[in-house]
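2024-03-11 09:14:02 INFO worker-7 job=invfold-0412 stage=load source=structure_tokens
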């Protein structure tokens, strides 16, 4: 799959914590499709992902984009609108 610039942003250090039935998660997954961005999806129906999200991000709310930065820091981005803006900005950088 290609995005508008025919280059794919590197999303290998990111994962989206989500729930299949959550409308806010659906918005993010639609935006991913539209932007041609592929991310590892981690359903919080899986107790291990849910507890990782709570331990790392501090809340079980989804969607949450996990970004593992090269300096070892892990960022937990909640709020569907912020996640979508961030994904759009990745495409702008390519
Ligand atoms: N303002 C948030 C709302 C997200 C939200 O309300 N998510 C629900 C699921 S649809 C949730 O995770 N609720 C809390 C929980 O399950 O712990 C966004 O836009 O991402």
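2024-03-11 09:14:09 INFO worker-7 stage=emit residues=94
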């Amino acid at each position: 799959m290609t995005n508008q610039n025919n280059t794919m942003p590197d999303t290998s250090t990111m994962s989206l914590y989500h729930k299949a039935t959550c409308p806010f998660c659906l918005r993010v997954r639609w935006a991913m499709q539209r932007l041609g961005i592929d991310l590892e999806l981690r359903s919080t129906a899986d107790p291990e992902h849910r507890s990782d999200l709570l331990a790392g991000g501090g809340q079980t709310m989804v969607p949450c984009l996990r970004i593992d930065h090269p300096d070892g820091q892990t960022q937990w981005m909640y709020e569907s609108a912020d996640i979508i803006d961030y994904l759009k900005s990745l495409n702008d950088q390519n």
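2024-03-11 09:14:09 INFO worker-7 stage=report msg="The first strand starts at residue 14 and ends at 18."
2024-03-11 09:14:10 INFO worker-7 job finished
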